[in-house]
User: What shape does this take?
Amino acid sequence: MRNCSILIPTYNGRDILEQCLPNIVDAATERRADDEIIILDNASGDGTAEFIADNYPQCRVVRLPENKAIFALNDGARVAKREHLFLLNNDMLLRPGCLEALLAPFDDPDAFAVTGKVFRRDGSLQATRRRPEFKRGRFWYVDTGEDGARGLTLHALGGQSVVSREKFLALGGIDPLFSPFYQEDLDLSWRALRRGWKIIFEPAAEMIHFGAITADRLFSRDEILSMIQKNLITFAWKNIHDPRMTASLIAWTGPQAARAALKGDFHYLKGLAGALARLPDILKARKQAAASILSDKDVFKLFEK
Assistant: This one.
């Protein structure tokens, strides 16, 4: 039976862990597969580490000197002792059989990541299979609507996916260029796909996501929406290397900004400004991301019907 290291980053999230961690511990204990649970404490000031030590001694706590947000997963990957890493938000619940379903597709040696079907607390569907879109110099992704069968997906969601530890480390983990969060998982997924590895959607793996609790505590809604735009732009500038698509990125930057200004889309404009401020770092990362087995077009073709 495959086992995994369950990595849970948290920042001042004791109250969330009180609600969600019992479910995770039970899921791991019931499997009897020697899974390990590692809580990555991002310098919390709410007694998270003490709470874990007192109530869940079977969980390992890694205390970090600063708040690294989701990038604490890189630290967790280095100290983890299992072959697979379950990258899990602190506000997740697992439905029965979720862990087994997430680990089963790793029979395929080319599998990099497996992600599942994510529901909101009200029972509505939050995320399923995804495919990439590129038009008029902008990259984004959409749900395919194909949520009933196992298959390739674009996106190994950062707080709800199992990855191969070996492959994760080979990619260098999550890129801090996307700090503090959003689209870092898209970047990781794209780099894996260009290596020729697979990201698999497994509908039998069902999870419930409370939803952006930590982000909402730290940032306003406007800041979050601007951050999403900044990191989508950053992703495209870093990762899209196809000559025609790159030319489109450059050619459409001005018109897209003008259109956003006319529409009052200040989230896009703030995101663009934030990406431009990081342009030297993005270009440096772009050079490092250039090496691959598959081209951008090859990756897009994976998702053509």
The chain has two domains: 4-217, 218-302. The CA atoms of residues 37 and 47 lie 18 Å apart. DSSP finds twelve helices and twelve strands in the chain. Residues 4-217 form a domain with the Spore Coat Polysaccharide Biosynthesis Protein SpsA; Chain A fold (CATH 3.90.550.10).
